[in-house]
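INPUT
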Amino acid sequence: MSGVESAGGARRAPGWRAWALLAPLLAWLLLFIVIPTGILFVYSFCERDELGRVVYTFTGESYARVFDPIYLRIFGWSVGYAALTTAICIVVGFPVAYQIGRARDPWRHRLLLLMMVPFWTSFLIRTYAWITILKQEGLLNAVWQALVPGHGPLDLLYTPTAVMIGLVYAYLPFMILPIYGSVEKLDPALIEAAHDLGAGQLRVFSAVIIPLTLPGIAAGTLLVFVPSIAMFAITDLMGGARVPLIGNVIQNQFMQARDWPFGAALGMVFMALFAVVYWVLGRWREREEAAG
Amino acid sequence: MSARVELREVTKRFGAVEAVAGVSLEIAAGEFLTLLGPSGCGKTTLLRLLAGFEAPTSGTIWLGGQDVTPLPPYRRPVNQVFQSYALFPHLTVGENVAFGLRMQRVPAAEVKERVRQALELVSLTGLDARPPDQLSGGQKQRVALARAVVCRPQVLLLDEPLSAIDAKLRHAMQLELKRLQRQIGITFVFVTHDQEEALTMSDRIALVNRGRIEQVGSPPEIYNRPATAFAADFIGQANLLPARLVAGEAGGARVRLEGGLELRLPAGAWPEGVAEALVSIRPEKVHVAKSKSRARSKFPEDQTNTFEARIEEEVFKGATDHLRLATTAGTRLAAVVANESALGEVFHEGDRVFCGLHADDLVVLRLG
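OUTPUT
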């Protein structure tokens, strides 16, 4: 039986055709994920010499250093930044996604397109654009000083605020898109039914809209939280070196400090943490589904 | 409990489109009124205006003597059964039914009792814990009904609630809904495009066409005395034939139908000062027989039109026999004969027959 014929049929174990179609993906995963992760895993147990070269021995020293309070604090900060980024993205992104999702047809597509426009430009260029807006003699300060004469320029760039602006700016679309998907599937009759049964705007929102768009919010949370926790480019460019986050620390070990074993150990611990979080979330969702 | 509903000169425009054009309608407390019309006629907009989902462009809506026009849906003592049922997929059957009571902050113990009663009313006892996606179409429909009536609305709005159910169950649900309405005594405003459904269930039917109400009346009134060509054509079947006045006699006018058949009308049936009009004849009102005497025997002779015809086409449908007649004068007519007995007359294509038609069964409709 061919794969095309079975497309609408029952699910089954993939045959050789399916494996052939999956081959590029599998090769990609192997080359760029599995093998590099394996190399990192090996490095994380090695040492380095004075020149930063990896010396193949077996030691757990790098792992011991990971649990140094300094790095734990940085890790805590990273989680905090990522959590705040996610929270702001939900608060800002939900109304946008909701309006796009409920917009009439030609408008819905136009608004979605508008949201995609920034992706036509390189991410780095957009980040540099933010720098020119936020810097002391930048656009924002020019407007500020024109409006409030006699006031000094605002110190925006290279502050935690700048980092938050950069992170929210970068990840907002990844929150909006999945929520939009949930909103679009939301039957407007359900909202009318809730109104009809005596629910005001707020109750409709909390009792119907939020529960029914929760899958979108959850997907958006994963898409924003996970990459923003490890982001280093924005924190580097817009935070200066003043806001060291875990992504910067790891990047530093490889690029500046040339301590690859320690960088690898940080990366492995980081990845293990994510695996645990995913596993717990997965279990929780399975239980939810079984209960529902 | 139930309330009188009144629409006064209600108009609703969507951009350039006039969905509802100056509708005035009174619905008595406890009445089962059906808004019947083809799709896009404005009947659903009328219902949405009553529910409060749309605000009228002009005019007012009154509920039990109170002007509710400015009130949002959640402040109106009305509830709706939606066409798609609109059951909350994240809540169980019990939670769906309890939703309206929770919004009214009814005490938990009372909620429990009223939900139980409502589910009992629609024969769904014991299904509280089910999620809606595990219910059949008929069950979903009952949950939607229970969810609306549990709030004890003064008016219940039903938007084609039976259209998604298969035919057999639909007929049972029609009678059940009617029984339920009598039992709880709430005013029902029911929207449908199905004329048979409207005839089966309603106390009165408001026939809606192009944003206006064409006719309001009981099912027999609407069926037997259609006020417009649209009403005659939309409900049941009708021979709609252009007619011209031949002579006005003391006992009634004589008219010539398209094709040439001349018929006598009862006194006062023909509108004054008009030369041409439409005559509507229900196919089952044409009494068809093999002999002239039998065609005449049904009604008093002085009130009966008799004429000869040939059967051009015959379609046997079990309970009825559908005939396509061509009168000797040349007028074409559809007739339906009841299959009363296996011993009765059998009609075939090409047969010559005699027809009797009581003058009172002719309905004259003004042109345009």
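end of record. Residues 49 and 188 of chain A are 65 Å apart (CA to CA).
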